[in-house]
Amino acid sequence: MVILVFVESAEGKIKNTSMEAVAYAHAMGGDVTAIALGAVEKVELESLGKYGAKKVLHAADEKLNQDIIQVYAAVLEQALQAEGADTLVLANSSLGTPVAARVATKIGASLASNVVELPDTSSGFVVKQSIYTGKAFALVSLKNQKKVIAIRKNAVGIKDVGSPAQITPFTASLADADFATKIISTEKATGEVLLPEADIVVSGGRGMKGPEHWGILEDLAKALNAATGCSKPVSDLGWRPHHEHVGQTGVKVAPQLYIAVGISGAIQHLAGVNSSKYIVVINKDPEAPFFKAADYGIVGDAFEIIPKLTEAIKAAK
Amino acid sequence: MKILVCISHVPDTTSKINFADNNTKFDINGVQFIIGPYDDYALARAIELKETTGATVTVLNVGLSDTEPTLRKALAIGADDAVRINAEPLDSYFVAFQIADYSKSIGYDVILMGRESIDYNGGVVHSIVGELLGIPSVSPVMKLDIDGNKAKLAREIEGGKEFIEVNLPFVAGCQEPIAEWKIPNMRGIMSARTKPLTVVEPKPVDSGVALQRFELPPPKGSVRMIKADNVPELVNLLKNEAKIL
Ligand SMILES: Cc1cc2nc3c(=O)[nH]c(=O)nc-3n(C[C@H](O)[C@H](O)[C@H](O)COP(=O)(O)OP(=O)(O)OC[C@H]3O[C@@H](n4cnc5c(N)ncnc54)[C@H](O)[C@@H]3O)c2cc1C
Q1: What is the Cα A123 distance to its own chain's centre?
Q2: C-alpha B231 to ligand 1 mean position (Å)
Q3: How do residues B22-32 score in pLDDT, each as one tens digit?
Q4: Do A199 and A235 share a structural domain?
Q5: ipTM of this predicted complex?
Q6: What does DSSP say about strands A278-283 and B2-6: parallel, antiparallel, or unpaired?
């Protein structure tokens, strides 16, 4: 059985969540072919072998440097056919999920997004999906021979299982009609740890009092190699960019560690963080509801505690 | 211009989630249903476009008759008419298929919906509808302007946004800050009662998935409190107990 894995890259580097998609396909027990589209560094592509890819396809056509959903879906359909693969695995993301949906529709596959574990194949093929914004799971049987599976971060973790893989160029035929959406420009933070990819997230709420106080959170994030996030009012007020907004109506994160500073812990915020492995809450109000969802808590003033925490982390390194 | 807004009928964001019938059914006891928050953004933008361009706005829901109050609310917010496709919304493909099939018969210029529902969170319906209709789909969209036959959109990506141009027709999965949620006023509520709500029977389709059962996550253990004057203890616990640092 061949499983195709679509890997995403940012600034030429493979995303962690895509490495995990390769590891997922490997753990499913198939021959894994990974495919990357557009400009990606060669060593990065080779490294996919370590996570279990037997073969790495690279569609390097520069028209693919822009990630247009329809175009990517068309290329993946051709790659599935060329590899004789029935199953496509990829990471849930703002690109991966829409692409998964279009490919599944093209090939008549059973589709599952937000998958949080390896499938149970003891009777049929049953995946576990996160639903109700992290408040529950659904066990769903994928009945078709063809399957498209979009996985969430931490569905299996990343393990080194192999050695660097050979890269095979892949040429897809690109139809003009698929370029109907034109990407005019992109605005993107560079050199930052991306929030959905991060293993540690430092997040601030209205308790931070204003954007001018984010420096102490950024220092803490830097000491931890963490991404920064925020609550909805913080992005609504324009203190932080919208893509940092965590929760029900924002980014859903699943880091190893989520540090919430001056966030009350409204149910809509918790919905975006409840897949975190550990949660630390720092809040001056001992009654803040967030403490009920936390593993570790400190009651106190963020402006005193955060600099001390940053120091203690630096000292522990 | 004809705009279709697809809305989901979902539990309020503060709902406690429970299941019934051996964990095979959502337990609606004590649950309030609302227009999906993301769909609500899509609807708000559609109403703004109606005001500025004279477009007509149709709202559509795939659901049984219990979802009609939610459709009436969308009419009260300002949609012109409503369509209910009379079926339980079993899975994403089923819902998307019904939306695509119905919209083919009318020919909408713009199809808007939320980037995802907040019950199943699939985040795929817009893209399936786009593929079934053979038109572009863009999601998650945080800005949308329409000028004649052309739309300008901003799509959120990890760490930033992308600015996109696309010709009509297209599908967009919406999120904030595309528009501010709108609250119906008294006049809207009164007029909603007499606006047309058409019920359409679904088309049979096999989506290749079958729900087995639901599960709730294990309850969270209790929190361990650390004194504010002992911050290094937190680092110690993260390092030696949680084994993170
Ligand atoms: C449909 C819907 C969707 C929503 N989606 C989201 C979402 O996706 N994400 C989200 O975050 N919210 C969301 N919300 C909003 C949510 O209900 C809360 O209003 C919001 O999360 C509160 O943000 P906050 O905790 O930053 O602010 P507040 O609730 O104002 O909390 C501030 C906290 O800071 C603490 N504090 C103040 N000063 C200090 C200090 N010096 N040191 C330490 N602590 C201090 C206070 O004790 C308080 O607990 C949504 C709401 C609705 C209705």
Answers
A1: 29
A2: 24
A3: 999 999 999 99
A4: yes
A5: 0.93
A6: unpaired
Q: Which domain holds residue A110?
A: 2-179
Q: Cβ A316–B228 below 8 Å, yes or no?
A: no
Residue type, B67: T
Is residue A262 lining ligand 1, measured as CB closer than 6 Å?
A: yes
Average pLDDT over residues A196-214: 96
Is A146 in contact with A107 (CB distance < 8 Å)? Answer: yes
Q: Closest partner residue to A186 among B162, B170, B242, by Cβ?
A: B162
Kindly list the residues from chain B whose CB atom is less than 8 angstroms away from the CB atom of residue A196. Answer: 158
Cα A204 from Cα A222, distance rounded (Å)? 15
Structure tokens at A241: 């960019």
Residue ranges of domains in chain B: 2-219
Are residue A169 and residue A251 in the same domain, yes or no? no
CA-only gyration radius of chain A, Å: 21
Strand ranges (E), chain B? 2-6, 9-11, 19-20, 25-26, 33-35, 56-63, 81-86, 110-114, 137-147, 150-157, 160-167, 170-174, 197-200, 209-215, 224-226
CB A117 within 8 A of CB A128: yes
What pLDDT shows up at residue A305? 98
Asked if residue A236 and residue A133 are part of one domain, the reply reads no
Q: What's the DSSP call for residue B216?
A: P
What CATH number does domain B2-219 carry, 3.40.50.620, 2.40.37.10, 3.40.50.1950, 3.40.50.720? 3.40.50.620
Is A184 part of any domain? no
Do A64 and A201 belong to one domain? Answer: no
Three state DSSP letters for A46-98: HHHHHHCCCEEEEECCHHHHCCCHHHHHHHHHHHHHHHCCCEEEEECCCCHHH
Tell me the pLDDT of chain A averaged across its residues: 95
Which candidate in A18, A87, A94 is best for mutational testing of the B interface (most B CBs within 10 A)?
A: A94
User: Token pair of B178, please?
Assistant: 């595309």
Rounded to whole angstroms, the Cα distance separating B147 from B151 reads 6
pTM strictly above 0.90 = yes
CATH of the domain at A119: 3.40.50.620
